[in-house]
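Throughout our pipeline, every protein is held as a single compact record rather than as scattered files. The record that follows is passed on verbatim for readers who wish to inspect the format.
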Amino acid sequence: MAWETRRNGNRYYYTKKRVGNRVISEYHGKGEVAELVEGLILEDKTERSLLRKARTDQREIDSSITDFIATLKQLIAEQLEADGYKYHKGQWR
């Protein structure tokens, strides 16, 4: 995203995106309208970044919970075996 200054001295707001091997410029205007568009695009970009971080954090939390449950199951199994129980056909007996 960038403001481009032309020979006539006017500034225009463009965004760039890649389509295949080409880079396409998308014109968004000049002046106040372009500044508003720039603000909306930056807000959207910030929101997407925050969502990515939230998803990453959630994956880390899920992984920690999964590890905790596996450890807890192992400890329970060890205690049940120590108490004389046997695991047979999906049940502790």
Remarks:
- The chain is about 55% helix and 30% strand.
- Residues 2-84 form one domain.
- The radius of gyration is 28 Å.
- Residues 4 and 12 are 5 Å apart (CA to CA).
